[in-house]
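Training component of the fellowship. As part of building independent skills, the fellow (R.M.) carried out the full modelling exercise for a liganded target. The chosen ligand was iron/sulfur cluster. The inputs are recorded below so that the supervisory panel can assess the work.
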Amino acid sequence: MPETADRQAVLDRAAEGGRITPEEALDLYRSAPLHALGAAADAARRKRYAGTEHIATYIIERNINYTNSCVTACKFCAFYASPKSEDVWTRDLDDILRRCAETVELGGTQVMFQGGHHPDYGVEYYEEHFAAIKERFPELVIHSLGASEVEHMAKISGVTPEEAIRRIHAAGLDSFAGAGAELLPARARKAIAPLKESGERWLEIMETAHNLGVESTSTMLMGTGETNAERIEHLRMIRDVQDRTGGFRAFIPYTYQPENNHLKGQTQATLFEYLRMIAVARLFFDNVAHIQGSWLTTGKEVGQLSLHYGADDLGSVMLEENVVSMAGAKHRSNRMELLGLIRSADRVPAQRSTTYEHLAVHEDPADDPADDRVVSHFSSTAIAGGSAHPELNLIEAK
Ligand code: SF4
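Fellow's submitted model of the complex:
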């Protein structure tokens, strides 16, 4: 076990932007005092963003859930329905375009296509939908899907993942959201998603995408029974690929939500574990620019705290979200509240693009945007019994 002085030396090195080993990261994650960990991660963030370190970003986006039909049956998932189940639904293209129109109307800049592994949806389905979105709304960035969807659609269409990526990129996909990473180490992944591709395969497909010029974010699902060592191994696997491609723009850990799924909430990551992960991720990823705090799954205060533990981004005002909400995430927010949260964390809020450019820096609260329709879950109509925001019907596709 390292001496306290040795551990502080590792923290100091990482705070300066130096590389730490997976073993050192695991030791910090397990044993470093929480405040020392946060201070080092915050120093690393400030150093990386020297000159704009007073800013924390957010984005306005919408998830578009196109179907819940899924053949993969992940044990942590509360969203999917078996393809033969009477609970299956799909959204038609008109409905999807209407949701895109609302996103544009409300100042959103990004849509995230998110759905099950439908037994019939091959590359052609995504080509048709992405092309239609881009034709009507060229200003919307399609930041969607991940290696799991690519693997699935390529199989359905009988093509390689590389060809699938080329085709959906040509049709309009701008970048991958890094969905389906869950936990990459084999034991932890098999335990919760036995029918998904392996973690190595997930990374191989993301590396292929990066090499084709399609960048992505990366994610991690915490709290389904994985060990601390497996959490750090997940980071190592991503960092190794990033050393070769530089294609991961951000790392976004989020916590397992325990309702309505087969794991039945037996395990969850604590909020302290989450904050420790944010901090260790900032220190470990000397090659990933952005670390995102997730208020949606951990709550607003923890999201706010994450800005002091190395996060530089507070995610999104998600105009529609169903997937983690159906698993129990109850947190809701709106743009005004998010701006307030960021300010009371002593940062200046800035709306960002998908590629993290600052679209609007909200220096003066007196100049804040005042559209009170910009709320999370503006429309979350896939939830049984869920209700659309009353404004929903007022905005028609143009
Ligand atoms: S997480 Fe995705 S792939 Fe897994 S069951 Fe849910 S919808 Fe299907």
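The panel noted the following from the submitted structure. The two ends are 63 Å apart (CA to CA). Residues 198 and 385 are 36 Å apart (CA to CA).
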